[in-house]
Inverse folding.
């Protein structure tokens, strides 16, 4: 990774659109893109990902805070630089190619009159579009249009390329091929990238770091492996890792009670005072169900994942997902007892403590505040 100045830095960004009253689209976002990085903006629809891209590109002005490119303010702090002077490339979800221009004219659109167009020619060859110069966008496939949009964004040699869900309109095979090529293309062009996606698998697969957003807040920004090992919030664990959130019913000493039975802290340390915010994050592969006619859990349905089944289990008013091997053949309506697999650990939030299964604790459990149902 380069040690040069960060090409993009967002400082305490707040934003809301006119007419929204007090509804903030973005709230206190701090984010830095390092030279040569590909960073993913990951989150559900409406969380503010595209708005953040538009603020960097200059299509929107932040309500508060500042945007810096190569350490120079381009928005906020009394400065405003229009989009055409920011030197930022943009790849839109719908490609936004000009239908009346052919592929070559689209690729060269961002170049100044008389500017050397050899880079545009190189990009068309790099992106396997050579020979298609005279075709118009409607004569290209979806994958070719996406490649052309990327070539157009990179032709002026920007330091930063912003990509707004660039693969969402492509079929699976083309999407997987193009996304695997993206990082190497950016690297060859000497550009950093910020890509918006709502697909956790895509973000974890191709990005150097992943920034997870919800409701205008940045929950965590980490390398994929760190994000998987140590999710910072229950939302990150649920959205990124597709984990289960389980309510806590009671605790005493180093023991905690829930629908999985009794759990204890790994180190034997005492549990802190729990509040109504307390919940457990459990990986679907760490849960088991033992068929029992009088069990509290009920199988509501299942999905085939290729190498395993994912069962939808309802227990104590909560719906959980469990991944089981293909030889596990549980029909809808079967009842059973839910438990934690041997050697598995769960994470207690907001304290981020690790717990594992144990026998009954000595003494009566002390109830915590009223049980919550994590969203």
């Amino acid at each position: 990774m380069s040690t040069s100045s960060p090409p993009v830095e967002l400082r305490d960004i707040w934003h809301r659109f006119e007419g929204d009253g007090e509804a903030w689209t973005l709230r206190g976002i701090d984010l830095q893109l390092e030279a040569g990085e590909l960073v993913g903006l990951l989150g559900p629809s409406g969380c503010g990902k595209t708005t953040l891209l538009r603020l960097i590109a200059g299509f929107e002005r932040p309500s508060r805070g500042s945007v810096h490119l190569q350490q120079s303010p381009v928005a906020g702090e009394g400065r405003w630089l229009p989009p055409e002077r920011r030197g930022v490339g943009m790849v839109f979800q719908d490609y936004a190619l000009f239908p009346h221009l052919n592929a070559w004219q689209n690729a060269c659109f961002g170049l100044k009159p008389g500017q050397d167009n050899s880079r545009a020619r190189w990009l068309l060859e790099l992106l396997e579009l050579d020979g298609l110069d005279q075709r118009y966008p409607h004569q290209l496939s979806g994958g070719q249009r996406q490649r052309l949009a990327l070539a157009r964004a990179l032709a002026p040699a920007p330091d930063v390329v912003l990509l707004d869900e660039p693969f969402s309109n492509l079929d699976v095979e083309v999407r997987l091929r193009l996304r695997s090529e993206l990082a190497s293309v950016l690297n060859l062009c000497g550009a950093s990238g910020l890509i918006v996606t709502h697909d956790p698998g895509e973000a974890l697969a191709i990005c150097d770091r992943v920034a997870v957003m919800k409701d205008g807040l940045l929950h965590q920004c980490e390398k994929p492996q760190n994000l998987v090992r140590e999710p910072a919030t229950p939302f990150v664990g649920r959205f990124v890792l597709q984990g289960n959130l389980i309510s806590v019913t009671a605790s005493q000493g180093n023991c905690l009670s829930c629908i999985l039975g009794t759990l204890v802290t790994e180190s034997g340390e005492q549990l802190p005072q729990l509040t109504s915010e307390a919940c457990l994050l459990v990986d679907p592969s760490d849960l088991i169900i033992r068929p029992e006619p009088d069990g509290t859990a009920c199988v509501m349905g299942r999905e085939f994942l290729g190498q395993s089944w994912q069962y939808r289990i309802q227990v104590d008013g909560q719906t959980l997902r469990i991944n089981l091997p293909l030889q596990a053949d549980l029909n809808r309506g079967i009842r059973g007892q839910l438990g934690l697999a041997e050697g598995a650990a769960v994470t207690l939030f907001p304290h981020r403590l690790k717990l594992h299964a144990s026998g009954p604790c000595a003494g009566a459990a002390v109830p915590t505040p009223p049980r919550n149902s994590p969203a």
The first strand starts at residue 8 and ends at 15.
